[in-house]
## 1
Amino acid sequence: MADLSNHEAVYATDEYGRPFIILREQGKKTRSHGIEAIKSHILAARTVANIVRTSLGPRGLDKILISPDGEITVTNDGATILGQMEVEHQIAKLLVQLSKSQDDEIGDGTTGVVVLAGALLEQSQELLDRGLHPMRIADGFERACSVAVDHLDSISDRVEYTNDNKQNLFKAAMTSLGSKIVSKAQEKFAEIAVDAVLTVADMERRDVPFDLIKVDGK
């Protein structure tokens, strides 16, 4: 067999005389590390965020997803889009898990959390280019989060409601349905959602066990 040391590819034959080509690939691969590895991870995560960015908000665009067996899904829901994507990169998979966690815990904002994470990573890359250490950047984000939460607490209002006066809850549900595919019938769906939540809500613990709410379909 020919020597691969000075060649990118080598022509060879097997014991039956059948030709094949040996590509020198493994020898060319190098493991990235340090800042370059971090930037590579940021790029992968930002790519995922950019995919769902255009589906955010009332004017967001729907995505057409086609599964391997030919099933077509039209949606602008971040969790649905990311859940059906075949993401291989481990860091990009974290954004998929982030969207799923948001969907399981809150039930809304699945696109927003991914877009926000992508924006923070974009700013992180600029800070890395300025020479800041990744740990200092992460510490800065922790402090900024604390400041943001304190500010939100200072400007927040308590929304009162009763089983007889559900108008405020109805308005909140209407807002969250404004960007969904059911927006043309959002009043009806908002009423259904509010009634379902109040039926299973634990007012003392301020918790809603969403797993008790089922959607029956044909």
## 2
Amino acid sequence: MRLSALLALASKVTLPPNYRYGVNHPGTLADKRRNLPRTRQRPVAVEPISDEDWHLFCGDRVEILEGKDAGKQGKVVEVNRQQYSVVLEGLNTHYRYIGRTKDYRGTLIPSEEPLLYNQVKLVDPVDRKPTEVEWRFTEAGERVRVSTRSGRIIPKPEFPRADGIVPETWIDGPKDTSVEDALERTYVPCLKTLEEEVMEAMGIQETRRHKKVYWY
């Protein structure tokens, strides 16, 4: 077994059988409060969908089909494949208090709740209306999303990173490591210890010898 596979097994979080996925990462304090021990969560009835048929990605424009925000359109900011749900920016929100203490009531902030994938639909860029989507292959062999109503190709959005950096337009600065420096081999493997390598580089000669020790 490769080292990467062993590290992946070591970092994998063991979840209980009745675990409920949410917007928080498994293992965090907020996730543990949601999934308390010895408590049963009500199962969410949703038809599973394979990874090959999944068609919602961060940055997509979708429309809500049901709920209090039905008919509104928003951008997908988070995708949860395990729960088959997505989170929309500023939609399907509820208000909660954070930082509450005995002397302070806390700050009221809006928090987006996830929506199941069958509660939203992609918006067709032709008429800005929700549409069904299916995967097809182009003449060049590229797998793309196509609207079944208009036949328009819906490309995958370029969702920016959290730090706002676009790798294609990034220009290295004076403190950035270049690709040539990163790929340069500067380490020569040897059987010497760190102390022996330092002594050899500084020209230090070791003349001392260990005394014989007898164990009885």
## 3
Amino acid sequence: MAAAMTGRGVTFIRNIAGSLQSRLQVLGGASQQLSCLHTSISLDSQYWEKNNRKVYPPQLPEEPRRPAEVFHSRRQIKYSKDKMWYLAKMIRGMSIDEAIAQLEFNDKKGAKVIREVLLEAQEMAVKNHNVEYKSNLYVAESFSGKGKYLKRIRYHGRGMFGIMDKVYCHYFVKLVEGLPPKPEQRTGFDQAKEYVQGLKNRTIVHSL
């Protein structure tokens, strides 16, 4: 009996080693193989703050002044990325003062975190990006991403247990100098027309 259990254990370990090796081969392959992997946020998000160090060529005298852009984020927030997404979407396209006011009267935990990040980004814009008026900013981009997920044991009665996740998320924001753009006026007919056009343009795999 012990020999049979030992044999099963060796087979199980070999199966795990084979699956891990195949996954490493996929990850180490070409970039076109990575297109099948699902990522919750953009691959450029790990370099989000590096956009602040981007240097543009000098402008000509007749060219309009290039608006300042401020990239800021906060990583590993003890909050769900799905709950954070609703708050991030709410302030997208708002002016900085309106976004801070909306978050100040929101009693959710994520609203306090986003408000702190916006205030930090607003201070960075004045100190480091030559923005004259701190109110002359709007939220151009605002989104959340998946952080680390820690698996923990939840104990039940009669010696049983379950698996729970300690979830974390990231928050990214981009402020642009100037007034927020006017929202595009779209009717229900325009949305339905765009939806039908998307259905026409889709590619059906293994079709005749």
## 4
Amino acid sequence: MAFRKIDIDALEEDAFGQDELDFQEIGELRPVQEVEAQVNSRAQEVRSLLQRGNAAGALSSSLQNPPYGKGYDSAKARNTQTVMEVLNSIKVAEVAQLVKNLSPVEQDVLMKYLYAGMAAPEQNNSGVLLAWHEKLTEVAGQGCIVRVITDRRTV
């Protein structure tokens, strides 16, 4: 049992650090201000789409290019809030059709945001999130859940 107490990654020269993983998974690391500006402009665009009644466009836009990586916590929180606003504004009857219209990548990103929302039940409506989760699982299958759980990139 003593072997379980040794941190093998500390001894391995080729072990990746979190910064290296972030760079590999998301490509070029962008300045925090740039990411926050992009998230804020996306939030305004999504709000205007919702006001015009374009729920499908608002959902798709909110799921585009989510902030990944370490150091973008405020941008991640802001983008999560934007996605939650979209999910809460859409009627339950429209959910299945909207989920079917999403690309597989967008479906995976939506599942990430659903889990992020469920992690903070005091801030989000769990009933709405569970309804979205049900419809998304029906359309995308259980593979979507597996891909999200095993992905190191978090929203």
